[in-house]
Amino acid sequence: MATSSTNEKKPGVIILGGCGFIGRNLVAYLIDNKLVSYLRIVDKVPPQTAWLNKHHQEIFDNPLVEFKSANLINPTSCQNAFASDKTIDFVFNCAGEIKSGQTDPVYREGIYKLSINCAQQAANIGVKHFVEISSGNMNSSEKAPLREDDPTEPWTFVAKHKLQVENDLKNIPNLSYTILRPAIVYGLGDKSGLAPRLIIGAVYKHLGEMMKLLWSPGLHMNTVHVKDVARAMWFVANRTDTIGQIYNIVDDSDSTQGSISAMVSELFNINHDYWGTALSTLAKTDMNTVVEEVNDKHMGPWAEACNKDGIENSPLSPYIDQELLYNKHLYLHTKKLSNIGFHYDYPKLIKDALKDMLDDYVSMKIFPHSLVI
Ligand SMILES: *[C@@H]1O[C@H](CO)[C@@H](O)[C@H](O)[C@H]1NC(C)=O
Ligand SMILES: *[C@@H]1O[C@H](CO)[C@@H](O)[C@H](O)[C@H]1NC(C)=O
Ligand SMILES: *[C@@H]1O[C@H](CO)[C@@H](O)[C@H](O)[C@H]1NC(C)=O
What we know:
Layout: H1 3-9, E1 12-16, H2 21-32, E2 38-43, H3 54-60, E3 65-69, H4 75-82, E4 90-93, H5 104-124, E5 129-133, H6 157-169, E6 177-182, E7 184-186, H7 195-207, E8 211-213, E9 223-225, H8 226-237, E10 246-249, H9 257-268, E11 272-274, H10 276-285, H11 287-308, H12 335-339, H13 351-363
Parallel strand pairs: 1-2, 1-4, 2-3, 4-5, 5-6, 6-10, 7-9, 8-11
Helix pairs in contact: 2-3, 2-8, 4-5, 5-6, 7-9, 7-11, 10-11
C-alpha cells in the first residue's frame, strides 16, 4: 500500500490540551490506529514534564506528531497555536483549568475564555469540526438519568463555565461543533477522576483502618473509560449529523459510590463503611471543616506511604475538592450517543481496569508498590 498517498487523504488534527489525561489518550488512539496524516498537540505543559507513561512517550515521539507550546488564554498565543501550512480538518479541545480550589475568575479565564478563543480560531481557519469536551456535572439527579436537553444547574465551577461555553459556541459564525459531556473519566493517566478514590483506598491500607465515606453507597458516580472518550471524540468529528449537538459520554454501569468503593476495597483488601447521616448532615452545614479534616486525614499518610517505598515525587494525591464531596449525583442518560451508532468498548466499569491504573502508576514509580497486591 502506498502509505504516502493514503496519508494525504487522512485528516490533519489539532488536539488542544494534548498532554492532559484525555488529550494524551486521544493522541494515542489516533496514532495507534493510523487515523491522521498530521497531529499537532498544543499544551502549556511540555510532554517532558507531563508524567507520560512509556507508551504515551513513544506515541508522542511519532513523526506525525508535533508539539506546540501555547497559553490558549492569550489570544496571540492562541492564534500562533493554530497557524499552520498543513490542512487542519478537526480540532479537539481537551484543554481547560481543572485544578481544584481556584477562584471563579481563574476558572472563567482558564475555561470560558480559553474555549471561546480556540473555537474562534478554529472557525477562522475553517476547520470541518470542533469538538469540545464539556462537563457531566450540569445538574444533579438521583431518580432518573439526566438527558442532554434537561434543564441545567451546574454544581462545579468547571461545569458552570463549560455551560457558558456550550451556550456561546452557537454564536460563533461558521463553526461546526459538537459538545461531549463526560461522566467521571478513568483509565491510564487519570489523576483526578477515579484516581483519588484509589489513592484513598491505598491510604487506608497503609493505615490498616476501615475506609469511611461520606453520604451513602447509592450516590451516583457514573463513569466512562478514557479510551471510549477518545473514540467518541473521533466518532462525532467524522459525521455531520452531530453538528450543534450535545452528547453525554457514559458507560452502562450506572456506577455509584457503593459500586466503586466495593472495587477499591477489594483491590486493597480493606473494609469500608459510611459516616451515615449524622456526620454527613453536619457536613452540609460545615462543609469546609469536614473537607479539611477528610483531606488532612489522607494527605499525611499518603506522603508517609510514598516515602516508605522511596517515591520522592508523585503527581498523585488523595485530595478531593469540596465541590466533589457534596451529596450531588452524577447520573447521566446513555442513549443519545448509542442511538447514532456509537458502541462502548468498556460498557462496564470493572476492577481489572482499576488494577491496570494501579499497575501503570507503579511502573512509573509514582505509587507505593508495596500497597498494590
Ligand atoms: C435541574 O435544574 C433545574 C434548574 O434549571 C431544576 O429545576 C431541575 O429540577 C434540576 N433537576 C433535574 C433532574 O432536571
Ligand atoms: C462564513 O462562511 C461563508 C461561506 O464560506 C463566508 O462567505 C462568510 O464570510 C463566513 N463568515 C465569517 C464570519 O467568517
Ligand atoms: C468517516 O466515516 C466514513 C464512513 O461513514 C469512513 O469511510 C471514513 O473512513 C471515516 N473517516 C475517518 C477520517 O475516520
